[in-house]
């Protein structure tokens, strides 16, 4: 019996020592369900010290505090108790069901991992109105507001969004971090510089606040209907007062974090009226003037002049094309040089755009440059307006005379000379020859003779082979559709390909190419290029949903890429993606 008793004591001691030596490494959270406006604390605890602690990346959360490290040692009944803890404070980036992945640490040469923890993030919850709670104090004293100049603009009418951060004088802001930036997918957008903005005093909800303008944005809606302006969200580190006072009687401050959001805004974009819309309307919206000015009107043949077609004013200057110039065929005209001198402020785009044509007359005479028209939608009167230039007469004083029709070489009553051809037009044809005799050689039975004789017979099988290949190719309906689609994609994207390496020019050209393709393929106008309309028409043509989604993503990328750093490799990838998508749409569309 004594032997059994001793054995039992030994087993108990061994078991106790083994349990005490067992390594524990756990992750514990303050809660597994929280609102998007709440904080989550996670502690990684271990009962033995280790090396190479590697936490999870917290991809769905923002780390607003930590890691904080604490160590405790205690001896109870001769048994040592050790605990080391790494603590993090997290703010969720959005709603959803997430998993905090495993953390790892190396203890005694072995790697230990925690168990993954599921977390549910719900919509914002009401924070208890506890006047001593720092988070409640922060929520009542700091606000982010998006001020929108107009909520029912016309298509291509400028609106502004100004983001202001209001802070009560009772709290102090240490820093902030932008955790969610709005994407203006359905707008042409431009940032206005706010670097020199200073803190100002103002009123918010009837109370005195300090405020700072964080961002100014000018937007031009590119489609009609209800468009969302996504919220701007900031994670702000601040200090709020407590009920405690220091030895000098001043209120003591405590640190906390607060996520503020400007909130989602919706605007209703009106379509431009159909009544009175000119046939040559190119989408210009605003208040403009129109000029067609030659650098000179009197010159000699083979001299050059510049003809400048310019639009000045306030409106969507970068978003429409200037009218083309139509000139007599006797005037040699080169491709115009496009120039933009546009500034963007809170009132929208202001400045001028122009096309400068180089013109070289070939013959003496007087040549009319017909009147050119430009139409736009005037926001003040909400009607379409047309501006026309005066007719310009170019007087070519010296040079060859065009006498193609001698009977019509006289000057007409209005002072314009008919365009005629030079009387020496056939002077280059020689009328005298210097023929020399050649030796009389026999062609019969020569190599050339036999080659010409046999060539038709050799050409017959070659013609049969070519004909069969053509018939096979014509019968390949699917292959022909692929070749036609690829050719169409290259046609529309040719200008974008030429601009590779020039970020803004490339993405503007790429976006225009996609829009022009849709207009040609779906028979719609620019003002009707809404996302819903495009999806509806492509789906009606039996285009696969995945291809439609890819096309919309490319359009979104064009908008975002203009204002973010992009390298030429990414540009090439976007070009190839656009070409592939256009090709797929053309193959699938019925």
Question: Any chance you could write out the topology, listing elements then pairs?
Answer:
Blueprint: H1 2-21, E1 25-29, E2 33-35, E3 40-46, E4 51-54, E5 61-76, E6 79-92, E7 96-100, E8 104-107, E9 110-113, E10 117-122, H2 134-141, E11 142-148, E12 159-167, E13 172-180, E14 187-192, E15 200-204, E16 207-221, E17 225-229, E18 233-245, E19 251-261, E20 265-269, E21 285-294, E22 298-299, E23 305-315, E24 331-333, E25 337-345, E26 348-361, E27 365-369, E28 373-378, E29 383-388, E30 392-396, H3 447-475, H4 477-498, H5 503-522, H6 531-540, H7 545-561, H8 568-588
Parallel strand pairs: 2-10, 21-28, 22-30
Antiparallel strand pairs: 1-3, 3-6, 4-8, 5-6, 7-10, 8-9, 11-12, 12-16, 13-18, 14-16, 15-16, 17-20, 18-19, 21-23, 23-26, 24-26, 25-26, 27-30, 28-29
Helix pairs in contact: 4-5, 4-8, 5-7, 5-8, 7-8
Plain-language structure description:
This is Oxygen tolerance protein BatD. Keywords: Membrane, Signal, Transmembrane, Transmembrane helix. This protein is α+β, with helices and mostly antiparallel strands and 590 residues long. The chain has four domains: 101 residues, Immunoglobulin-like (Sandwich); 136 residues; 109 residues, Sandwich (Immunoglobulin-like), CATH 2.60.40; 112 residues, Four Helix Bundle (Hemerythrin (Met), subunit A) (Up-down Bundle), CATH 1.20.120. It is 25% helix and 38% strand. The strands form eight sheets. Strands 21, 23, 24, 25, 26, 28 and 29 form a seven-stranded mixed β-sheet that branches. Strands 11, 12, 14, 15 and 16 form a five-stranded antiparallel β-sheet that branches. It has a four-stranded antiparallel β-sheet with strand order 1-3-6-5, with no helix packed on it. Helix 4 runs antiparallel to helix 5, helix 4 runs antiparallel to helix 8 and helix 5 packs parallel to helix 8.
């Amino acid at each position: 019996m004594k032997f059994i008793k001793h054995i039992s004591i030994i087993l108990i001691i061994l078991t106790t020592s083994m349990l005490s030596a067992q390594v524990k490494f756990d992750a514990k959270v303050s809660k597994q369900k929280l609102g998007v406006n709440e904080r989550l604390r996670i502690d990684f605890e271990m009962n033995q010290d280790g090396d190479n602690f590697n936490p999870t990346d917290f991809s769905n959360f923002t780390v607003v505090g930590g890691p904080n490290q604490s160590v405790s040692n205690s001896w109870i009944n001769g048994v040592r108790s050790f605990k080391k803890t790494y603590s993090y404070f997290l703010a969720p980036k959005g709603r959803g069901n997430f998993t905090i992945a495993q953390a790892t640490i190396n203890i005694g040469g072995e790697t230990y991992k925690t168990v993954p923890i599921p977390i549910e993030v719900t919509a914002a919850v009401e924070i208890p109105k506890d006047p001593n709670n720092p988070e409640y104090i922060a929520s009542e004293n700091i606000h982010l507001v998006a001020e929108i100049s107009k909520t029912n603009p016309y298509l291509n009418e400028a609106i502004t969004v100004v983001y202001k951060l209001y802070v009560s004088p009772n709290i102090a802001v240490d820093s902030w971090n932008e955790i969610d930036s709005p994407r203006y997918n359905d707008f042409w957008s431009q940032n206005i510089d706010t670097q020199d903005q200073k803190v100002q005093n103002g009123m918010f909800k009837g109370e005195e606040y300090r405020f700072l303008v964080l961002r100014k944005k000018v937007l031009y809606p590119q489609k009609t209907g209800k468009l969302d302006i996504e919220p701007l969200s900031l994670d702000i580190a601040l200090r709020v007062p407590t009920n405690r006072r220091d030895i000098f009687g001043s209120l003591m401050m405590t640190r906390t974090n607060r996520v503020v959001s400007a909130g989602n805004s919706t605007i209703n974009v009106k379509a431009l009226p159909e009544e009175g819309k000119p046939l040559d309307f190119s989408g210009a919206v605003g208040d403009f003037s129109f000029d067609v000015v030659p650098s000179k009107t009197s010159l000699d043949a083979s001299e050059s002049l510049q003809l400048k077609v310019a639009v000045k004013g306030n409106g969507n200057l970068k978003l429409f094309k200037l009218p083309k110039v139509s000139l007599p065929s006797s005037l040699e005209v080169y491709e115009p040089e496009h120039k933009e001198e546009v500034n963007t402020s809170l009132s929208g785009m202001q400045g001028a755009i122009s096309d400068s044509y180089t013109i070289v007359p070939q013959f003496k005479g007087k040549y009319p440059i017909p009147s050119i028209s430009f139409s736009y939608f005037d926001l003040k009167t909400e009607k379409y307006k047309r501006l026309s230039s005066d007719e310009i007469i170019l007087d070519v004083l010296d040079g060859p005379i065009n006498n193609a029709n001698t009977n019509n070489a006289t000057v007409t009553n209005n002072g314009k000379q008919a365009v005629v051809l030079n009387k020496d037009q056939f002077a280059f044809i020689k009328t005298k020859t210097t023929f020399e005799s050649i030796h009389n050689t026999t062609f019969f039975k020569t190599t050339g003779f036999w080659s010409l004789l046999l060539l038709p017979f050799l050409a017959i099988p070659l013609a049969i082979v070519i004909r069969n290949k053509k018939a096979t190719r014509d019968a390949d309906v699917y292959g022909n559709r692929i070749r036609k689609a690829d050719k169409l994609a290259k046609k529309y994207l040719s200008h974008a390909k030429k601009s590779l390496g020039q970020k803004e020019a490339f993405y503007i050209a790429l976006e225009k190419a996609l829009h022009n393709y849709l207009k040609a393929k779906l028979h719609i106008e620019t003002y009707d290029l809404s996302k819903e309309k495009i999806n509806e028409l492509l789906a009606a043509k039996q285009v696969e949903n995945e291809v439609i989604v890819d096309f919309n993503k490319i359009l979104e990328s064009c908008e975002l890429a203009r204002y973010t750093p992009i390298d030429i490799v990414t540009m090439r990838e976007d070009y190839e993606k656009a070409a592939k998508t256009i090709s797929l749409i053309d193959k699938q569309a019925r």
